[in-house]
């Protein structure tokens, strides 16, 4: 049975309540100040793989969209991450965070030390958006519904517990507090308007579940490798990829 617009939105929001990665113990550890410097660095390195691929995901989506109004609305997402003449962009802001935690930004940008599970999860998301229906692709982006809360908590926790944290280092998260609501308002309205059968609503809900699993899998990989110490071959090893000390 097809749900009303209001009931279907409540269903999507419940998925976030139950499955979003703010519930993962790694985030509790990070935001509570319990991560070691190397655990923070591992998070920065591996999350960069996700940041790097978000514009690729959005470009893959736009390449399939024939409606110019939808393309026009969507392209700001690429600009938010890649930057423009007047906007530094999320990728460069993330590399400023890498600077702040003592990593060499060229090493981080190379993605050489990314965990295999992180790489597979992120690439699976890009393929999902490229190959699934437009409705499923947009619905998968709706984890942004829940992002402002985690960004606000992250800013508060990092500022409280870590010496590296300042306005420059955390600029990525501060900017997403205003960028994400803009994106999600459009995406949510589009999904609610286009998921007009029970089958389409199920597909959209499952797409959102898939995306929460992509995010959760990345943190599971971090926990196993750098909290429990099972670092797989080829992944970043503490002590690698550090910035050279600045000359006095």
From TrEMBL:
Q: Which GO terms describe its biological process?
A: pyrroloquinoline quinone biosynthetic process
Q: What class of enzyme is it?
A: oxidoreductase
Q: What is its EC number?
A: 1.3.3.11
Among its keywords, does the record have NAD? no
Q: What positions does the domain Thiaminase-2/PQQC occupy?
A: 10-220
Which pathway features in its UniProt record? Cofactor biosynthesis; pyrroloquinoline quinone biosynthesis
| GO molecular function annotation | pyrroloquinoline-quinone synthase activity
Query: Domain of life here?
Result: Bacteria
Keyword Oxidoreductase listed? The answer is yes
Which UniProt keywords are given for this protein, alphabetically ordered? Oxidoreductase, PQQ biosynthesis
Reaction catalysed?
6-(2-amino-2-carboxyethyl)-7,8-dioxo-1,2,3,4,7,8-hexahydroquinoline-2,4-dicarboxylate + 3 O2 = pyrroloquinoline quinone + 2 H2O2 + 2 H2O + H(+)
Q: Which family is it part of?
A: Belongs to the PqqC family.
- Give a short account of what the protein does: Ring cyclization and eight-electron oxidation of 3a-(2-amino-2-carboxyethyl)-4,5-dioxo-4,5,6,7,8,9-hexahydroquinoline-7,9-dicarboxylic-acid to PQQ.
Indicate what this protein is called per its UniProt record.
Pyrroloquinoline-quinone synthase
Organism, as annotated = Salipiger pallidus
Lineage, top ranks: Bacteria, Pseudomonadati, Pseudomonadota, Alphaproteobacteria, Rhodobacterales
């Amino acid at each position: 049975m097809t749900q009303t617009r209001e009931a279907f939105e409540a269903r999507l929001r419940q998925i976030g309540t139950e499955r979003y990665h703010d519930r993962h113990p790694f985030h509790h550890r990070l935001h509570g100040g319990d991560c070691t410097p190397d655990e923070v660095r591992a998070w920065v390195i591996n999350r960069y793989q996700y940041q790097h691929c978000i514009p690729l995901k959005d470009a893959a989506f736009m390449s399939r969209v024939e409606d110019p109004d939808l393309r026009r609305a969507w392209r700001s997402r690429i600009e938010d991450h890649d930057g423009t003449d007047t906007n530094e962009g999320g990728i460069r802001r993330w590399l400023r965070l890498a600077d702040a935690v003592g990593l060499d930004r060229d090493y981080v940008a190379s993605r050489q030390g990314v965990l295999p599970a992180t790489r597979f999860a992120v690439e699976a998301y890009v393929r999902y958006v490229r190959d699934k229906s437009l409705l499923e692709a947009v619905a998968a982006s709706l984890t942004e519904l829940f992002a402002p809360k985690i960004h606000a908590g992250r800013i508060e926790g990092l500022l409280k517990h870590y010496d590296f944290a300042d306005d420059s280092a955390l600029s990525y998260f501060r900017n997403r507090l205003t960028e994400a609501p803009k994106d999600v308002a459009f995406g949510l309205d589009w999904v609610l308007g286009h998921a007009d059968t029970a089958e389409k609503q199920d597909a959209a809900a499952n797409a959102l579940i898939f995306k929460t699993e992509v995010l959760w899998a990345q943190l599971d990989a971090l926990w196993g490798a750098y909290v429990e110490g099972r670092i797989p071959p080829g992944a970043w090893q503490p002590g690698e990829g550090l910035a050279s000390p600045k000359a006095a």
